[in-house]
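Trying the structure run again after the queue cleared.
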Amino acid sequence: MLKGNILTPDGWIFGTLAFENGRIASIDGVRGDPDTNDAPYILPGFIDLHVHGGGGADVMEGGTAIDIIARTHARHGTTSLLATTMTAPRNELMAVVAGLGELAHRRTPGAARVLGVHLEGPYINPGKLGAQPDAAVSAALDEVLHYLSLAPIRVVTLAPEIAGHLQIISEMAARGVRVQLGHSLATYDDALAALEHGACGFTHLFNAMSPMHHRNPGLVGAALAHAEFAEIIPDLLHVHPGAIRAALRAIPRLYVVTDSTSATSMPDGEYWLGSQRVTKCLGGVRLADGTLAGSTLTMDDALRNLVALGLPLADVSNRMSRYAADYLGIEDRGRIARGAWADVVVLERGLTLAATYVEGEAIVDNA
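Done. Tokens:
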């Protein structure tokens, strides 16, 4: 049983939270402002829909690397995540996705729940690779359907301006896949067409996409004008705080991702991001030419960064948990409610992580 300031969908409750069989059994207490006491904060566990690695391991390695990644992020309050691939040659990517499919229905003790796969590429624009390897291809429906048969692919990032991709967006959206626009040179009109065909998100907003100009709004302009959901990386390196503030005003359910790499929670040095060699230094990860290559961000650091920008903790929590769950259509994660999975983080008053519970299992317990 946990006691403190519990953030529920209806607001703060000062009281107790009990688990049973991995789910939330009861929430008892009274409504109250957490500023009136010094008890810890009890929030929904963090949900990260864009994770490439952590703890020295990379998703593209498959196998035990996924367990290392899921354990690493659980120690920073992430209770569920999407294993995110890199663009790669077809046979290599197929093998990785098939391996992720085999892991999708189990959870390693001490680790975050892997909810499925975020396929970031290979259907991206070769002119906007960012840190993706130069293996971009146009999507073919039979190939896409084969990927979907191999693993629970929840999210796909693609460039909508590539010929044939609007049909692919429609086909994937009809199958419940969340299609995101990114790694793209799309015009504003390209983006609107994609949204009309069923696309519903934007991958690491501002990064690796056509920027906004007042006479050529690009993909960024389309997101700011029309998006309900979009990812953002609040490491304060990928996106300037002023741009974060603009996105917060424009996009109702802007949610946090880390875009984390194998260098996360590791010392400075050289690591792998898919087939690319990257270097961690000065708080970031870069290719040899200086291009940002994912991040070393953890979700607990992301929370502290957004609070430091002046956002209320309850608003930040929604962007760390609830909105990502809503985006995937998951009703029993991302919120503290009776019957939901007992995915919970406990924060001290200084916002340091005191405890993490994944489906009722204590992962971190410094309380």
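The chain has a mean pLDDT of 97. Worth checking whether this holds up in the mutant runs.
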